[in-house]
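Encode chain A's predicted structure.
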Amino acid sequence: MRAHIQYLRDAGLPVFAGKTTGTENRPVHRHQGLFELLAVFAGACRLVAGGGEYFIKKGDVLVIKAGLDHGIEDACQLKAGSLHYKIGTIAGWIQELPEPPGSWRFFAEGSFAGENFEFREGFHLPSSGLQYLEWLVDRIIAEGEKMDRASLARRKAYFLSLAAFIAGQENRLDLNAAVRTRAGDLQLREVVKYITEHYAEPIKVSQLAEMTYLSPRHFTRIFKDYFQTTPMNYITNCRLQRARLLLAGKDYSITQVANECGFSDSNYFARQFKKAFGVSPSEYRAGLRKRR
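Encoded structure for chain A:
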């Protein structure tokens, strides 16, 4: 994204932002000297951070400390915003707020604490608050494309507004426990874990529904409410993400890739792959080889 590229050109830029969308995953990586506030505006994904895995969905907001290994996997209809910032630069900014201690701790210490980087805290925002947060992130992205002094002042103003807004939230979210929604009570995290471990096998919605003691129809409705997609679409997405890795790494035939990822019909696999990524499996592989 242009905001990210600009930051690399200008080491003095204290705050920049970007977005992740659709089925776009992020390999495990780390930011030296940069904290990241991650907000999920739509959909869901699996966050890999500090050796743990956390299923996060629309409304979840957390802070990843500088130097912590993290990545996004199994992105499903995802739209997430990332706000990167330097602690040393924004320390003075935060203290300009009327009540800096609470918000400063969230921004400066992050959501993962201790030697094992156990999840400690985050926020879960309602739709109205989420829309405002996304608007602020969009403004920071827009200002990040400019290099003048006025743009830096506006970036500071938007960041202070975002920090003050976060400081006023009290609806904490414990990502280590069942999410405090109807979906959390239905143990959907266990269902998703089963999907990610068995996506290469035949999976029926009725089979997943049994794990939650619900009818397939009711289970599908709750699942869609939580992940913004149907169970079968979620399974297909897991299979397609695995297919991308196989196409990039091993010399499997297209039929072999389809079979390895749980598609019994290679033609159906090719149609689903092109629908998701805009190119056929063979075109995707050829593009990778050309870039190499």
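The domain at 2-167 is CATH 2.60.120.280 (Jelly Rolls).
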